[in-house]
Amino acid sequence: MTAHSQILVQLLTDIHKKSVLIGLSGGVDSAVTAYLLKTEGYDVHAVTYIMSENHKASVKDAADIASMLNIPLYIEDKQEEFKNSIEAYFIDSYIKGDTPNPCVLCNSTFKFKHLIDKADSLGISYVATGHYANIKFDEHSGCFCLYKSKNERKDQSYFLYKLNQQQLSRILFPIADMNKEEVRKIADKIGLPVKDKKESQDICFIKGMDYTDFIKEHKKGIYKESIFTDEQGNVLGKGENHIHFTPGQRRGLNKGFNKRMYVIGKNAEKNEVVLGNEEDLYSKELMISDINLICRKNLPELMHVMVKIRNSMPAVSAMIITVEDGIKVIFDEPVRAAVKGQSAVFYENDRVVGGGIIYDGL
Predict the structure, then answer these.
(1) Which residue in the list 103, 106, 143, 145 is annotated as catalytic?
(2) Among 110, 192, 294, 303, which is 20 to 30 Å from 88 by CA?
(3) Catalytic site residue 106?
(4) Whole-model pTM?
(5) Fold (topology level) of 228-276
(6) Which residue in 103, 143, 145, 204 is the catalytic one?
(7) Three-state SS string across the chain, please?
(8) 145 is catalytic
């Protein structure tokens, strides 16, 4: 190979390494992500996945963004697969009495899986989204680590703890530590059409209806009234089907009681909702399974970490103990409403150690 050929191959290799596929949702975060990577010299491509009827409304926004930034956009309909995986998981979890977190499952098994598969089909090196979290390579361990965003209010590392090394090695998060005001300021400066688009606070595939209506619409059946009981099994009354109730809830329990009552558990098989006092919601220990560790093959037998049992709560101090059927979490102080089906995520300072699904919570 001549010197000229070697230089040409190296140039082509460098260009290939600077290629990236953006998951373009039609919102301001992914739009600014695309813009920032383009200004950094990446060969930027974009893909929009239609995962439900709700996502169809964002296709035009994604197309307008791609047109303005002059990047190619691929639009792919994944509704059937999404329905049979993420939506089915969500529905089935509620019916069996758990409280699922579909975003956690979607990120690892759907969103980033499809992004990387699409990137591979196009010969593109990296994928990117508008998530608020950090990925860094740790030379000491030789693996990629996941970290919280410096923007604590927007941090999304909790929803990403199931990502694996192969995925983390390919992902870029350009707006990781920015705040929303900075993102909107960039969008305004370059005239992005979605600069003022509101953020969705709902589950992305459920809009304009209650989640229970969504379940009943997609899983036909007879949803009988539930029985309210106390912890001893004494019948206290009746209410809507158990899918309407989540541990920690007070709504819908004001009638017929002479004191504040809370949902403290459920028995889906018997269609029973267990009621109690607020102090009954607190627990010092819980068990988790379906463990994913970000940058470790195994955990020490005993380890001190900070733990989140839902994204909206601050991480709290705990010990985690590896046991035969998962990990036991022992909190320094009791935590409120550790709910079955939700994730418990472990942190060392700002680094995500890993996490799993709570299976013996309320």
Answers:
(1) 106
(2) 294
(3) yes
(4) 0.90
(5) SH3 type barrels. (2.30.30)
(6) 204
(7) CCHHHHHHHHHHHHHHHCEEEEECCCCHHHHHHHHHHHHCCCEEEEEEEECCHHHHCCHHHHHHHHHHHCCCEEEEECHHHHHHHHHHHHHHHHHCCCCCCHHHHHHHHHHHHHHHHHHHHHCCCEEECCCCEEEEEECCCCEEEEEECCCCCCCCHHHHCCCCHHHHCCEECCCCCCCHHHHHHHHHHCCCCCCCCCCCCCCCCCCCCCHHHHHHHHCCCCCCCEEEECCCCCEEEEECCHHHCCCCCCCCCCCCCCCCCEEEEEECCCCEEEEECHHHHEEEEEEEEEEEECCCCCCCCEEEEEEECCCCCCCEEEEEEEECCEEEEEEEEEEECCCCCCEEEEEECCEEEEEEEECCCC
(8) no
